[in-house]
Amino acid sequence: MKRISRYMFATVLVGVVALGAAACGDDDDDAGNRLNVTLRDWAIDLKPATVPAGEVEIRAKNNGSTAHEVIVIRTDLPADKLPYDDAANKVIESELDVIGEIEQFAAGESEEGSFTLSAGRYVLICNIATHYELGMHTVLTVQ
């Protein structure tokens, strides 16, 4: 019987362990259903900007200096043209198809939420007074 070197054995062992780890990955590794949202003063960044339809996990990180929120709205309106109440300095949510939200949370914190999104166009906003008009809105495409 042929003997294999320790180096060869170690190389094979590392390969087997790597394959096993990949096969045993959990559902959190399914980046296609995860949307990373970064909130800044005064912008919202998405990664990726397009996700597949279905259950989408939104992970929001507040990198701003004040509290922010994430509201998910299904709409074909331009992101900066949602119905707006000038007196309240807020988007009029009751006039829109609001899917859900991650409620306001503090600067430096992170929050998560799961949303069932069908194919279409969505706008994500922060609707704390003045934040929307300062630029906290962006478009998400769901395929």
Element layout with pairings:
Elements: H1 6-23, E1 34-40, E2 43-47, E3 50-51, E4 54-62, E5 68-74, E6 84-85, E7 90-91, E8 97-105, E9 110-117, E10 120-125, E11 137-142
Parallel strand pairs: 1-4, 3-11
Antiparallel strand pairs: 1-2, 4-9, 5-8, 5-10, 6-7, 10-11
Radius of gyration: 21 Å
How many structural domains are formed by the residues? 1
Q: What is the overall silhouette? A: globular
- Low-pLDDT stretches are 7-30
Number of strands: 11
Question: Please, could you describe this protein's structure?
Answer:
The structure is a single chain. By secondary structure, this protein is mostly beta strands. The protein has a single domain, classed as Cupredoxins -  blue copper proteins (Immunoglobulin-like, Sandwich). It has one helix at 6-23, and strands at 34-40, 43-47, 50-51, 54-62, 68-74, 84-85, 90-91, 97-105, 110-117, 120-125, 137-142. The chain has a five-stranded mixed beta sheet with strand order 3-11-10-5-8, with no helix packed on it. Strands 2-1-4-9 form a four-stranded mixed beta sheet, with no helix packed on it. It starts with 5 loop residues before the first helix and ends with a strand.
